[in-house]
Amino acid sequence: MKTGLHRSIALAVCVLACGERDFVPIHPCVLLTPVIGVQTDAVEEVDLLFVIDNSGSMGQEQGLLAAEIPRIVYRLASGDVDGDGTPEVRPIDSLHVGVVSTDMGTGDHLLATCDLGTGDDGVLRTSGNVGIPGCMASYPSFLEFRPADGGDPSAFASEVNCVAAMGTDGCSVEQPLEASLKAVTRDDSPIAFLSGRGHGDGMNEGFLRPTSLLVVWMLTDEDDCSVRDPELLDLDSERYTGDFNLRCPFYPGALQPVERWVDGMLAVRPDASRFFFAAVAGVPERANPDLSFAIDWDALLTHPDMQQVIDPGMTSRLRPSCDRPGTGLAFPPRRIVEAARALEARGAGAVVQSVCAEDYSDAVEHILSRISHALVSTCLARPVNVGSDGLVACEVTETLPSDGPVTRCSQLTGWTRVRTQVGYDGTSREVCRVQQLRFDEPGDGWFYEGSDMPAPGSDLLMACPPTRPQRVQFRSSDGGGRSVHGGWIQVQCLARVVEGPPGEVNVGSPCTDGCESANERAEVTDRWPGGLACEPETQTCQPVCETTAMCAVGYACSAGYCVNPTCL
């Protein structure tokens, strides 16, 4: 009874004293709660799908790609992505390589360069090129390399070459988007094809794994012509007239929408960060993107040589987008570039390079560098508030391996041991807390950067998709830019509790959202008469006050802002 009486008195006093002040939920003293947990474990499996144009003009280009396959395999298998002898990322556990051609046939319409039927139909190739010394006549539908098994990456690359060197007797109606989509799409997918269902869980079963990084690497000198209306291929069609070689670019409505391919590929990779698209196609050499920077897709698509116009010197074809003696000519790959742009906008990795280059060494070097960002990503799903000291409320830990050159936190400057972790196999591993730096501060540790405050010389906009333009990045006094210890890195970020529905500026929102805009809403000013302003210590929107009477019940005015008094 005594307790109940005390509660009644307390309530009465509050009603008399508080007057018109609103009751609002009081945030606990610990205002920081976990909102972002990013496990940046390196990708363990990579599924690499080569989509190769096997039409009559592709002999030289196939040879240039074949020369680079050993380097591609070695770099992915070893983790030494830039070839400097030091792994930039943890070596993958398993690499699958499959090959499809761009030949999807012409159905019932006979063409001089195409057979009737469905062509190769997006089925992974099993035929080897016996014209190459050492090649067998047949291979499994996909090849696997596991570095831990001690295999020779060069020998594995030779086997890939045996399958990828498919020759040039394929259909001249190139359909690389459709071939790659059908290769990985499951039979039960709602996506329908002109002939049957997808092969992902049928003829190509086992190639694509649930959590792998899927890399689609395309090689073609033509734009995509993935056919939706089969009549487009009818030489006697009254609907689709004119020179047959010009039908694909001039009748876009008869082609499958590019968005269908993008949707379909991301359906098999809902986590867009696990999908990477690289196309070596007819990009003009003078507009070939410098992959040291983010690609300006709009500038590329509006380049004069990317326009699909009739060649005045040969009116039966488009004007070539590039032409180099020795590697042939190519035509504007607008649909392929549009697909790459759409993928990047949705969080996947995407690059294009010119097929007309003298060799593909530079293209492969840059593409592998971009892929390395997908192998270990520290891009965050949402921004983190930066404090007045230039730091963020995040903690980065690294679990070191149990064996190898670095197994103790004390071996690393800026790494402090926090505990020892014992695995299921009984091995002990040290867990280190990594020192945080400001984005412009030298030293050993990690720093946070966002699109509004990138570090000098940062590749943030290349490494992170537009949907996640912020990350944690590593720095070392010797000039290194990434933690490379064969360990596992975890990022845990904290952010101040935000009142109200998502998308509205309210108490706890970052100052960059514009605190003053919240003061236009009655529900904010009714609750907080002084309105909201940017609190410099936390860089978040907080209620302004002159006295405690301007604060909601349970809050007190301190240093000009309403706060939970138990936190003072």
Describe this structure in words.
The protein is an alpha/beta fold. Helix content is 20%, strand content 21%. It has eleven helices and 22 strands. Strands 4-3-2-5-6-11 form a six-stranded mixed β-sheet, with helices on both faces. The longest helix is centred in the first third of the chain and has 20 residues, at 59-78. It is globular. It starts with a helix and ends in a 5-residue tail after the last strand.
Overall helicity: 10-25%
Secondary-structure-derived class: alpha/beta
Distance between the termini: 33 Å
- Report the count of strand segments: 22
Q: What is the number of helical segments per DSSP (H or I, 4+ residues)?
A: 11
Largest sheet: 6 strands, mixed
Summary, kept brief:
This protein has 568 residues and is α/β, with parallel strands linked by helices. Helices cover 20% and strands 21% of the residues.
Descriptive labels:
single chain, 568 residues, alpha/beta, 6-stranded mixed beta sheet, 5-stranded antiparallel beta sheet, 11 helices, 22 strands, disordered N terminus
Give the SSE layout:
Elements: H1 2-18, E1 32-39, E2 45-52, H2 59-78, E3 94-101, E4 143-145, H3 153-164, H4 176-184, E5 213-219, H5 247-250, H6 258-268, E6 275-281, H7 297-301, E7 310-311, E8 314-318, E9 322-324, E10 328-330, H8 334-345, E11 349-354, H9 361-375, E12 394-399, E13 415-422, E14 428-434, E15 436-437, E16 445-450, H10 460-463, E17 470-475, E18 488-496, H11 522-527, E19 532-535, E20 540-543, E21 556-558, E22 561-563
Parallel strand pairs: 2-3, 2-5, 5-6, 6-11, 15-16
Antiparallel strand pairs: 1-18, 3-4, 7-8, 9-10, 12-14, 12-18, 13-14, 16-17, 19-20, 21-22
Helix pairs in contact: 2-3, 2-9, 4-6, 6-8
